[in-house]
């Protein structure tokens, strides 16, 4: 208060929520600052982060209303002027860690006594006194009004240091709890009673995973769901970094109850572990110490419990002499991100520290392609690290490997899922980009030139914020474990031109090749458009009695689907026949808001009236976006309109969908 101390700037800890928690279907960020303030942020617009709620302020108000007592039976608190009372109030409001749970389902009763399932997510906040506040948020999280409840649990752990969710599924019954680690050594699972959460159960009492007060602080905890090949059931592997060792605990539910097997993995590092991460796809654990050594631990099941095989990853062979400060594995295990600074040179520490984020590939191109083909997620956006490996390979070799093309064609013939069509579109676009001339300058690098021109002298008056991509001054290098050579950076956004370097003799075949690829891209896009049109028409048929009320150009979409004589889809023809019968020869066309002329449906991307007014079409509902504000997908494939209050629920649900071409969210 006296301003005698400098402001506490920076962050102690941050935690990402699961995908699908904000209004755009992306992640929320919980950030804990150095002055013990916990807040939640969201990326609502492009490159714009917004603080949605300050949980420290809300929790402080709750404690003030309760008289700084957890229950009414507690003794009345003393005066704030007493230093012990000041310490007590500070420790019960100072967060140490916070972690998000997985998305769960809650039951909500409507006014007409109907029950509907509503998604929710939990945020557990660990405080210095050992208490845990569990916040429940309704999804999508919009702010203070989305907070459903807040409950405080006493963990009984002194000097807590780390927190993690324990989520276990057994016989289609989901169990949950909170794993708390202490700076003195113990690790404990705390039951969490999730009332009104559909299908969730918890432990009857706390479970001590490690109870020795051996003064080895718990630095990090990861919980990995696995399948036990010998017991033929699911199990839960808990790993914790304790000093230079890794503590592991295998939890297995049998007819006899909860079985707990635990031990330590020693001989990994000569220095304490500074960071630990886990690949939840296969259970592989990665640890690192500050001397630049990363260990890969692979769990192998035995008849009773499990054992770990570990191998050393020497970053010095890839990046030179470096010090490591943290590691993280990408969601599908394609990359390992490492924060590094310069190491010692000639026995001397560097004068200045330059922090860099380095990327190490953990999978080969063939492994990434196979995982994308056999994926159960069937969403390219959720597997962007795998698609990045495939993209890099095609950009480098300038062709799609034959085995991948054949496997993808077989999947499309046998399954016909639109996911494989989107994957094919992704490959063709990258191939088209690789054939083009690389830009002379790296476009993401910011320009330091001050170019000033008069507006009257400029060739174009208008400009958009998308014309100039924002970059970062930090370097990010991608290097394989076995290949230390530097790759060529190629811009992600290819120009729609047919320029190609080379002599005039070799230019003609290249132009023909580009035109052929472009024709294939248009064919795949048209197929995906027709499939989504069928889905939109299905929603129209199911939810309306008179299609006039839909505001969707139903007749135009039907005519567009039937206009191509080569398109023979029996499902589409039957659906269109039912809809036309319901419409009873009515057309219900769209009208231009400027001149009131009819907007014909001749193009899936835009609508042009007879007076030349051009309106872009929403790719989710195929309505014309007759407003100055609209949404766009992350990769700028398509545009979509904003939902309006008069839209029915099924149209709002359509507008919440991802991009039909690249699976990216729209905002």
From TrEMBL:
It comes from the Eukaryota. Residues 584-634 form the Transcription factor IIIC putative zinc-finger domain. One of its GO terms (molecular function) is histone acetyltransferase activity. SUPFAM superfamilies: WD40 repeat-like. Residues 7-363 form the Transcription factor IIIC 90kDa subunit N-terminal domain. The gene is Gtf3c4. GO terms for cellular component: transcription factor TFIIIC complex. Coiled coil: none annotated. InterPro entries: DUF5921 (IPR045803), GTF3C4 (IPR044230), TFIIIC_delta_N (IPR024761), TFIIIC_Znf (IPR024764), WD40_repeat_dom_sf (IPR036322). PANTHER family: GENERAL TRANSCRIPTION FACTOR 3C POLYPEPTIDE 4, GENERAL TRANSCRIPTION FACTOR 3C POLYPEPTIDE 4 FAMILY. Residues 454-508 are annotated as: Disordered. Residues 473-482 have a biased composition (Polar residues). Residues 364-441 form the DUF5921 domain. GO terms for biological process: transcription initiation at RNA polymerase III promoter. This is TF3C4 factor. Pfam families: DUF5921, TFIIIC_delta, zf-TFIIIC.
